[in-house]
Amino acid sequence: MKRPLSIAPPNRKPRIVIVGAGFGGLAVVRGLSSVDAEITLIDKQNHHVFQPLLYQVATAALSPADIAAPIRTIVKERKQMHVLLDEVTGIDKEARTVFLSSGASVDYDLLILATGARHSYFGNDHWAEHAPGIKTIDDATKVRRTILLALERAETNRQENVESRDELLTFVVIGGGPTGVEMAGAIAELTRHATSMEFRYITPKCVRIKLIEGGDRLLTTFPEDLSAAAKTSLEMLGVEVLLGARVNDIDATSVTVGEDRIPAATIIWAAGVQASPAAIWLGVEADRAGRLVVGSDLTVPSHPEIFVIGDTAAVIDANNKAVPGIAPAAKQQGEYVAKTIRSRIRGKNETSPFRYRNFGTLATIGRKRAVVDFRWTKLKGFPAWFLWSTAHLYFLVGFRNRFVVGANWMWNYLTFERGARLITGLDRGMDVQADGEDLVTKQAA
């Protein structure tokens, strides 16, 4: 039996509301560019951020503006598009109304939820204060400040308190997926070259980087030989990889793994995600990660007017396989939803189930080191790194960002310098003296 079409009456344009301007949300926007409808795009940030490169902001390889673009700039050519800087607090499914934190509300005929995910600490939410994850520009700049301050304070410490210096120069990354692997490799390259080239009293031998993974190997979505290659590459960079290691506690100065306490001033979380509260807004079924369980057409059961995509949705595609929570999948879902909506507005109700096309999985470990799985072939080392770089440049939003990021990567490759090593956001009470200089002014170019 066909579902009824959920579109506007003939005397007015359809009202389409998209919540979230990530990869999935923007894919819907692009797909609806030719649709005669009133479209509202809601996001709590005024910019779209290319999340796969946030770790490079956190490790001073790129500046925040290099991987972000204002939402209004992205959609400026779409005259029927309304952009709201606001946050959703609830949804009335029967009245078809979205409620916002500002007190406003927006009515819809069709609703697309592409609200992404946040960090999951598996019931230990108090760890978040001491082990931040990286999902936003603010998260990345906070982690960058923590890493750079640790280096500066260790330099100030010199040999006066070896125990304190060792704690400052110990960096712990929790989670052995692509984010954790990329973060650990980037920290290793940053600290190794900075300490050997620009600091006087600390050396690469002083730095300890630990990557903690609860499973028996890194990058579990990759073939075992590529996982092993990633582990070898990290170890060549000086990263200590701890497999089968369970984190029992995290505090301001340490991580407890099993019964061992690891003192560390910088702890970064990359171990799990939790979907946005969209399931709570709708009062519908969710899986253990908080993702809405949707149908084969990416709609909420019994509500064909509500689509859920990206990290917010638990999707089993037409191949009877779980769709991963990655950017390409979100973009494909957004394109599928836009196609479905165009079909509905034309008066048709025939759509095939969503089918995810896996074009490959990529992860970088550092300079000239990466792994790529295309299923039909596998790459590692420099060819994989070059392909990873090219793919990420291609998917960045806007020519300016592609050009700037490409130029920065080329400069970094040739000189080993990282031009975004700025310590910002310090309170006056946090300032530290180093060689007679205020740390805020001691910013290495």
Describe this structure in words.
With about 450 residues, the chain is of the alpha/beta class. The protein folds into two domains: about 15-45 and about 85-120 and about 275-345, FAD/NAD(P)-binding domain, CATH 3.50.50.60; about 125-270 and about 360-415, FAD/NAD(P)-binding domain (3-Layer(bba) Sandwich). The chain is about 30% helix and about 25% strand. The protein contains eleven helices and 27 strands. The protein has helices at about 25-30, 55-60, 70-75, 135-155, 160-170, 180-195, 225-235, 280, 325-345, 380-395, 400-415, and strands at about 15-20, 40-45, 45-50, 70, 80-85, 90, 95-100, 105, 110-115, 115-120, 170-175, 210-215, 240-245, 245-250, 255, 260-265, 265-270, 275, 290-295, 300, 305-310, 315, 360-365, 370-375, 380, 435, 435-440. A six-stranded mixed β-sheet has the order 5-2-1-9-21-20, with helices on one face. Strand 11 (about 170-175), helix 6 and strand 12 (about 210-215) form a beta-alpha-beta unit. Helix 1 runs parallel beside helix 9. The longest helix has 21 residues, at about 135-155. The radius of gyration is 23 Å and the shape is elongated. The chain starts with 14 loop residues before the first strand and ends in a 7-residue tail after the last strand. The model is unreliable at about 1-5 and about 430-445 (pLDDT under 50).
